[in-house]
Amino acid sequence: MPQRRPTRKGNLWLAETLWKLGAVQFGSFTLGRTTVDSPVYVNLRLLIGHPTALWRVAQIIWDELQTLQRMMHPPLQPFDLVAGVPFGGLHVATAFSLTAKIPMIYLHPRLDDLGSDVEGIYHPNQRVLIMDDLLAGGGSILETALQLGEAGLKVGDAVVLLDRQQGGHERLRRQGISLTSLLTLEVLMNYLMSSNKISEDLYRKTMEFLDTHRHLEADRD
After folding, report:
1. Which of 10, 19, 58, 71 has its CA 20 to 30 A from that of 183?
2. Whole-angstrom Cα distance, residue 41 to residue 52?
3. pLDDT per position as a tens digit, 162-200
4. Are 164 and 207 in contact (CB under 8 A)?
């Protein structure tokens, strides 16, 4: 199933907001296991310092999901709960839960290092929508889905604020999880370049990095 994206207006508002918050940084960054020497880092967690922006993100997500669910052949499965991926996805899921009035759960690591406990109220066979702030390789979402499945819950969809386009959404698809993203790294960079917020050199370096990782992921597939 192809990756789903919301309206252009929501994309560009988020791109502009992240720029204004200073969340888009350039340099050389290694982020986790899948992002090495990236020329750009997007710190989505800065949204927690701006409640109005965080609320609007939640509203945009809710509006988009309702639009998908109203389609004749909805590409989004109905869901009973929303699960935030610690730690970046927790504030997104919390804001969404308050906006949509949908109960939230999350995984809490056990002290004995033997897995995680599911915090919140849930029942077996309920459907869960996973939320995270950022997608790179998809490992965090897949691990969350696995542990929720072990608790008897069902996962078929995930939502992220930013997809870095490093093979994560294809990896999720192969595991039966469809992705909705508010923004992609390519759209973000195109917006910043077209609005003269960054130099052509920064744009070129980032797009070369993105193209390289796309090719690497294609070779792995």
Report:
1. 71
2. 23
3. 999 988 989 999 999 999 999 999 999 999 999 999 999
4. no
The pTM assigned to this predicted structure is 0.89
220 falls within a domain: no
Instruction: List the domain range (segments joined by +) for residue 28.
Output: 8-215
Q: Concatenated DSSP letters for 25-94? A: EEEEEEETTTEEEEEEEE-GGGGGG-HHHHHHHHHHHHHHHHHHHTSSS-SS---SEEEEPTTHHHHHHH
Residue type at position 65: L
Are 141 and 132 contacting, i.e. CB atoms less than 8 angstroms apart?
A: yes
CATH number at residue 95: 3.40.50.2020
* Residues forming beta bridges with residue 183, ordered by sequence position: 162
110: exposed, middle or buried (C-beta count within 10 Å: 0-12, 13-18, 19+)? exposed
Cα(176)–Cα(141) distance, integer angstroms: 12
Total domains, the chain: 1
- Does the residue 159 lie in any domain? yes
* Per-residue model confidence as pLDDT tens digits over 28-59: 888 766 677 899 999 999 999 999 999 999 99
2 lies in a domain? no
What's the CA gap between 124 and 148, in Å, rounded?
A: 10
Instruction: Tell me the C-alpha distance between 50 and 46, whole Å.
Output: 7
Q: Is 41 inside any structural domain?
A: yes
